[in-house]
Amino acid sequence: MIKLEKVDKIYKVGAEDVHALRRFDFTIDKGEYIAIMGPSGSGKSTLLNILGLLDVPTNGVYLFNNEDVTVMSDARLAEFRNKRVGFIFQTFNLLPRTNALHNVELPLIYGKKSPAARKGIALEALEAVGLGDRWKHKPNELSGGQRQRVAIARAIVNEPEIILADEPTGNLDSKTGAEIMDIIDNIHRKGNTIILVTHEDYIADHADRIIHLLDGQIESDKRRE
Amino acid sequence: MIKLEKVDKIYKVGAEDVHALRRFDFTIDKGEYIAIMGPSGSGKSTLLNILGLLDVPTNGVYLFNNEDVTVMSDARLAEFRNKRVGFIFQTFNLLPRTNALHNVELPLIYGKKSPAARKGIALEALEAVGLGDRWKHKPNELSGGQRQRVAIARAIVNEPEIILADEPTGNLDSKTGAEIMDIIDNIHRKGNTIILVTHEDYIADHADRIIHLLDGQIESDKRRE
Ligand SMILES: Nc1ncnc2c1ncn2[C@@H]1O[C@H](COP(=O)(O)OP(=O)(O)OP(=O)(O)O)[C@@H](O)[C@H]1O
Ligand SMILES: Nc1ncnc2c1ncn2[C@@H]1O[C@H](COP(=O)(O)OP(=O)(O)OP(=O)(O)O)[C@@H](O)[C@H]1O
Ligand SMILES: [Mg+2]
Ligand SMILES: [Mg+2]
To answer: What is the residue with the minimal CA distance to atom 29 of ligand 1?
Structure first.
């Protein structure tokens, strides 16, 4: 379903080249539940950004259902980003000037639902992450873990087939983190694909397959028995 | 050394009052090593912001060395914030348009050192957190955990007496997190005061005293034997 072949990601900083991903080969089938671990700076967010079409490889190929994404039409790319993929960012990336409800509502705006239905769906997503009573708050009127949960609610509100989650429990206490993992596990049970970056073993243990990165390459790739 | 007496922090959101801290009593002596834990939204960052003079109580008193901070002169308050306290923010708060070295150099700018000495000290702080080869990168050219480490280097560069750290290892793998805890433990051994917010028990175990917050109040306050 998703295939990276010999992908390089090279950033230029001044005169220097930073190799964030190196000759990266990676295949993911529909419905898999994958955890990606590795040291700070090893390429996890870079990999997720490329998978979510938020960034492009410097070299190599990204095939989605055997189709090269670089030759997909703009309409197909937009549909992929807005409807098929839900992205939970490591630094949340909420709109600062609007409240939690509107932030969560955003992915629904291009769909066919009425404004009232959108608000109802967004409110349910906020209730699912324990923030039903915080919908009016703007991001700077929320705690760090609350902002993270708004970002999670926004990623799941469109019921996407693929969840790309970059450290979704990094700012959460263990009880709230467990509630979020219940939501993600449920999405997986419905047949969807989960790719989760985490540095916590007990979070990675929810996945069926654990991949360790080191210096922009795969160091190990193990399936659970 | 630090005393909060019957402190309330009440935010207004539209017509609603949010009680982030409620009748909060808290005493910290010089040289203590305290961990603050509690659920997402329980008031941990609010408490740290008040202790670091980045926010003011709605009611109640904050005494620093028996002096009410609200009657301190502006010069004394500035000295407290810039020289006596090092603050590691939950969301890093780096200057986006300048590189890691300049971000770390910032607290030194009001001191008496030469520009060359400031750069050398800032570079050493970046090397101490494993980022000596990333000093030219701007925040958006760094990974999440690298930005967190720049925020840590900036907080310690002035050798402050009090470190206020809001989830300093939240974006770090366990090995890098352990390296950061070594740095913080060392600062404590020199006689300084550490107040650390974390949701990880193994990080809290570095402290001598662990405080649990719930709904803006202290639920438990235990010293290690
Ligand atoms: N500027 C603000 N305006 C309104 N409410 C706020 C504001 N800042 C914080 N709050 C609310 O105050 C409560 C405490 O927030 P705080 O940031 O201290 O929590 P926290 O314990 O640090 O949580 P986390 O573990 O998620 O970082 C939260 O319920 C939050 O919604
Ligand atoms: N825009 C950029 N320009 C230059 N270098 C970059 C850029 N983005 C990332 N890097 C570098 O690429 C490497 C990989 O970054 P990435 O964000 O993928 O790491 P990560 O594994 O997510 O780390 P963390 O666990 O700290 O979040 C890092 O060394 C980083 O400094
Ligand atoms: Mg990352
Ligand atoms: Mg907080």
So the answer is: B41
